[in-house]
Amino acid sequence: MSDPRLAELSRRLPALRLLATAAELEHYGRDWTRRWTPAPLAIALPAGAEEVQAIVRWANELRVAIVPSGGRTGLSGGAVAANGELVLSLQRMNRLLDFNAVDRTLTVQPGMVLQHVHDAAREHGLLYPVDFAARGSCSIGGNIATNAGGIRVIRYGNTREWIAGLKVVAGNGELLDLNRGLIKNSSGYDFRQLLIGSEGTLGIVVEATLKLTNPPPPSQVMLLALPDMDALMQVFALFRARLVLQAFEFFTDHALRHVLAHGAQRAIDGDYPYYVVCEFDAADERQQEAALSAFERALEQGWVSDGVIAQSEAQAAALWRLREGITESLAPRRPYKNDVSVRVSAVPAFLHEMQALLAREYPQAEVVWFGHIGDGNLHINVLRPDGLAEDAFIAQCEHVTTLLAATLQRHGGSISAEHGIGLVKRAYLESTRSAAEIALMRGVRQVFDPNGILNPGKLFAAD
């Protein structure tokens, strides 16, 4: 390492793994966004909390910025290192540390992949219920940093509901042990919840204690074809009233075309503008009959045009692939993404206004949208038209996002539902948070990270 700062870091931590080849810098220096050229100083892969503390103290002394890094599956540029930062990858800190049968908790390191957490809980007959399509590559630390939601929020809530305790290295190098797995703790501010969703700007998670729950009862998966947008909320209201929903996800015909072209199998003949994948409790004959009754009612009302119920686990997985395969199928096109939310009661009015806005502002671009309709979260993907330069496309999309942010503000919504603010959305934070809130957020950051070394440039428009 020719850089004297890295030489000093190696002197202090001779066992620390440091990477610095061009390929490694590019690989670790970006997330799923591709708008910035990675340019990190180096990649540090600590093996434990003590090394993380030592790195943070070194960074404070030498004023080196740090970008915490997990699975790098984020979509907001939160893990991008484009300005000579040290990437602190938690990839090696990926072990299961403890299972407590009485407390029903797992304690894990932050680099543990979500799928491995699911598997570990299942080995003990329990469930860690936060789930989404990137489960095989995203890490628990990243999930905590963005308060990840996913496909089962309607049943289980977001990540923050399932964090019993955290150990965090703050920006000043102090190790904080937050909540310690307590169910009741009314002893002042809950810094655990403050750190969840903070995008690595306050501290670096080095250990997490996760709550577990009972596995859900047997379920069934249904795919519905809908004739129009208004039917989405009518079907949701009907099914929520009659069934115990585990998930209620929708996507458009544009999304279906892409995922079918990517290898998924068509499940309903014909073309329809909207589709819903619905999963619900079906432990007994009564619940199964209730599902059929709800489907028949939706048909009678003209809210559903067709549908199919999975008859096996393989069929259920095939139906879910139609929804979960969308992001992967669009990835080669490098779409411009928006991840927004409104209250569920505001969804109908917002959908109409949003659809009119997108149709008006993107007359030539294909817009693919889908989402977690049951919790008010919509994902918007804009595909760059052939012949339009990348810079011009980004400029157009940022203009439209400004209009979308204003629309969200009128409806009391958020410019980021579950992917964080990062670099991509920091210019639109004021549409979601008041000036007073942002000032307090900056103040909190100053307390936890007085020298501003943790993920600078993320979350706020200017540091």
TrEMBL record:
An annotated GO BP: respiratory electron transport chain
InterPro entries in alphabetical order: FAD-bd_oxidored_4_C (IPR004113), FAD-bd_PCMH (IPR016166), FAD-bd_PCMH-like_sf (IPR036318), FAD-bd_PCMH_sub2 (IPR016169), FAD-linked_Oxase-like_C (IPR016164), FAD-oxidored/transferase_4 (IPR051264), Oxid_FAD_bind_N (IPR006094), Vanillyl_alc_oxidase_C-sub2 (IPR016171)
Gene3D superfamilies noted in UniProt: 3.30.465.10, 3.30.70.2190, 3.30.70.2740, Vanillyl-alcohol Oxidase, Chain A, domain 4
Keyword terms, alphabetized: FAD, Flavoprotein, Oxidoreductase
Domain FAD-binding PCMH-type, residue spans: 36-215
Names of required cofactors: FAD
One term of GO molecular function: FAD binding
Family from the record: Belongs to the FAD-binding oxidoreductase/transferase type 4 family.
Protein name: FAD/FMN-dependent dehydrogenase
Species, as recorded: Rhodanobacter denitrificans
